[in-house]
Amino acid sequence: MASEEVVEVAVRRHVLTNSQPFSAVLDGIFSSISRPDIGQLIRKRGASTSYEEFRSLVSRAQGGSSLMRFVQLDLDTAFTHDPQARGHAGRRLVRLIAGNPVTMGEMTRHVPDSGSYAPITILLEEMRDGETRVAYDTVASAIAAYRDAAASRVAEQLDTEVLTLLRKVTGARSAVSWPPGGDERRRSFNEEFC
Questions:
Q1: CATH at 78
Q2: Cβ distance 68 to 62 under 8 Å?
Q3: Ranges 11-15, 64-68, 156-160: which has the least confidence
Q4: How many CB atoms neighbour CB 69 within 10 A?
């Protein structure tokens, strides 16, 4: 018998905007995210004989922010031949997919659906005025509907690490919740649907 379930997911997005050039922000993120040879890492992982050995392997491969870069998608290439995207021509739009296999495992052992949000995505946009906009959707908010304390603790730690990196790179100091009253609206949404 087949079934389909619908789970409402309210995601908290952090948007950090600064006047630094796009390349400086991207380079700043790359300075704390490693880019290991994924094929070699997978082979070594397969040869691991214990969880401690696996953790050690990942620890040696990760960057200063405990993240590894898996994929970089240059989304701006879609604008190259699009006549309706003239305002975007020449501006960068990049999606970085990064993560940590140990962190992912620690979340998915409790909530398998958290694998939809780990590895994480960081979206960078070069704005028309030369500013750079960085967006990050928190994993903790995405898995809140599952109400699993253990997975949420791991997700909150991951979010803290990612946001610390992004705030350092962009110079952002504090988060402002949007829309105003957002916390009350989220609380109401969670009480009603989660």
A1: 3.30.310.70
A2: yes
A3: 64-68
A4: 19
Q: Is residue 119 part of a domain?
A: yes
Question: What are 154-188's pLDDT values in tens digits?
Answer: 999 999 999 999 999 999 876 666 565 555 544 54
Helix/strand/coil for 99: strand
pLDDT tens digits, one per residue of 106-143: 999 999 999 999 899 999 999 988 899 999 999 999 99
Q: What is the 3-state secondary structure (H, E, C) of 139-172?
A: HHHHHHHHCCHHHHHHHHHHHHHHHHHHHHHHCC
Residue 191 domain flag: no
pTM of the model: 0.80
Residue 190 inside a domain? The answer is no
* Whole-angstrom distance, CA of residue 68 vs CA of residue 188: 36
110-to-20, 101, 132 alpha-carbon distances in Å: 39, 15, 36
